[in-house]
Design a protein that fits this description.
Helix content: 40-55%
Strand order of the largest sheet: 2-1-3-4-5
CATH superfamily of the largest domain: P-loop containing nucleotide triphosphate hydrolases
Largest sheet: 5 strands, parallel
CATH architecture of the largest domain: 3-Layer(aba) Sandwich
Number of helices: 18
Strand content: 15-25%
Number of domains: 3
Number of strands: 20
Radius of gyration: 30 Å
Oligomer: single chain
Structural class: alpha/beta
């Protein structure tokens, strides 16, 4: 059928109508076009797929019972491809249960019984078109923001993070399993949530389970669920994470910490897409997208037997490696700014910016705890500052002992300090002053004597380092 146009609809939405009965198809298309929508028609699901492959539409209106490919199979194909627009299902009297099941299982927008009520259809079309446009705009803004250093809750403008953003955008629309690797605190769960948010499953649940946080005896119950009486303490039926994540995404965090025996059972579920509750007699079909994460070196985990090789290959369909913060020096300003905004809202503060001295200290820090450590440092600073500029006075007192990328001055014994090669003279001086103050229990007069400097010089040094003790009263 040819495209029918009428007066431009404010939404400028295109509607694809799929029905095997020509008279109903043409009549419906003519009516919808008169409301200002652009209309395409197809005689069955296969023709609809062919047309959708050539051009996108904002709303799909489809009959259920059709030859060659019915409406149910059409929606199933579109869902699996990750490009189903809001769909209105048309159903004859007596097929309401099927229509409701279609909406529940395949995420159709709504259903209508035949014969169609024009007023109700028009309202549904307008609402579905609005939802489609909103989704398109959200995705456009996400793409735009990703090039400005933000993708969902991920923040970064460095080449390494732009590579991560690119991988997230590529894999999100698919059904592929994803393995996210990286040191603790790099933001692996944020990557998983970004993939879920940008995927066709965004309307479904996101469920995360920490495989290192519970004993083996509870792990299987958490994953697969249990029936009442399955074991001592099972006083009622409980759904597991796979059931809770139905039509959504399940994050298996710290997968290499999962007991090997449970890994074998997990592999079976991933291969069959069916789960059986502990104590259950029947299996439940699950439709869940799996994302796994680990902070371990994969080669080491495989060699030590901490991660089953067959499970690794099942999960490692698409791998995203997160860089440590020490390799993302250019991201610190944008990360700190984003954290300040977030923490201001959380604590009701009004911190506005970071002083150059603080930014320099942040740049020189090694960040063994990565972004999580940065958040903790910034949270303390925002709370203490309250409002205005964050200065060195608002940083943790011992923050300077970790200055320098891989150039750490650290306390080795109670009354000694060890400096790694590459530490600056300033780093060494600050570390020496702080360890001496600890030795004298903060008696500055005694500390100055030990250091061979005047009390005034000691205070000047403390002030220079931003120490909270710079204004404190000296004890004799």
């Amino acid at each position: 059928m040819s495209t029918m146009n009428s007066v431009a609809n404010p939404l400028s939405a295109k509607v694809l109508i799929v029905d095997d009965e020509e008279s109903q198809r043409v009549g419906l298309a003519t009516m919808v076009a008169s409301w200002g929508f652009t209309v395409e028609t197809a005689a069955d699901g296969q023709e609809a797929l062919d047309k959708l492959a050539e051009d996108a539409v904002q709303v799909l209106v489809t009959d259920l019972m059709m030859p060659r490919m019915d409406g149910f199979e059409l929606l199933k194909r579109l869902t699996s491809q990750g490009n189903m627009p809001p769909a209105i299902v048309l159903t004859a009297f007596g097929n309401i249960e099927t229509a409701i099941a279609t909406i529940h299982d395949l995420g159709a927008y709504w259903f209508m019984e035949k014969p169609i009520q024009p007023a109700a259809l028009r309202i549904l079309l307008e609402r579905a078109a609005s939802q489609s446009r909103l989704t398109e705009e959200t995705e456009r803004l996400q793409r735009q923001l990703s090039y400005q250093g933000v993708l969902v809750d991920l923040v970064g403008s460095s080449p390494a993070m732009h590579q991560v953003f690119s991988l997230v955008r590529q894999v999100a629309p698919s059904k592929a399993a994803v393995l996210v690797t990286g040191e603790s605190g790099t933001g692996k769960e944020l990557v998983a949530r970004a993939i879920h948010h940008l995927s066709p499953r965004r309307g479904g649940p996101f469920v995360a389970i920490n495989c290192a946080a519970m004993p083996e005896t509870l792990m299987e119950s958490e994953l697969f669920g249990h029936e009442k009486g399955a074991f001592t303490g099972a006083v009622e039926r409980r759904a597991g994470c796979f059931e809770l994540a139905q039509h959504g995404t399940l994050l298996l965090d710290e997968i290499a910490e999962m007991p090997v025996g449970t890994q074998a059972k997990l592999l079976r579920v991933l291969e069959d897409s069916r789960v059986r509750r502990l104590g259950g007699k029947s299996e439940i079909t699950v439709d869940v997208r799996i994302i796994a994460a680990t902070n371990k070196v994969l080669d080491d985990a495989l060699r030590k037997g901490e991660l089953r090789e067959d499970l690794f290959y099942r999960l490692n369909v698409f791998q995203i490696a997160l860089p440590p913060l020490r390799d993302r020096d250019g991201d610190l300003p944008i990360l700190a700014e984003a954290l300040i905004r977030d923490l201001n809202k959380k604590h009701g503060c009004k911190a506005t910016e970071i002083s150059p001295d603080v930014m320099e200290q942040l740049r020189r820090h090694n960040w063994p705890g990565n972004v999580r450590e940065l958040r903790n440092v910034m949270e303390r600073a925002v709370i203490i500052a309250g409002e205005g500029t964050i200065t060195v006075h608002h940083l943790p007192r011992d923050f300077g002992l970790s200055i320098g990328a891989r150039q750490i001055a650290e306390v080795d014994e109670p009354d000694s300090v060890r400096l790694q090669v590459g530490a600056t003279v300033s780093d060494a001086e600050k570390a020496l002053i702080q360890i001496t103050l600890q030795h004298t229990k903060n008696n500055k007069t005694r500390a100055a004597e030990i250091l061979g400097i005047s009390l005034k010089t000691l205070f000047n040094k403390l002030k220079e380092y931003g120490s909270a003790d710079a204004e404190a009263t000296t004890t004799a």
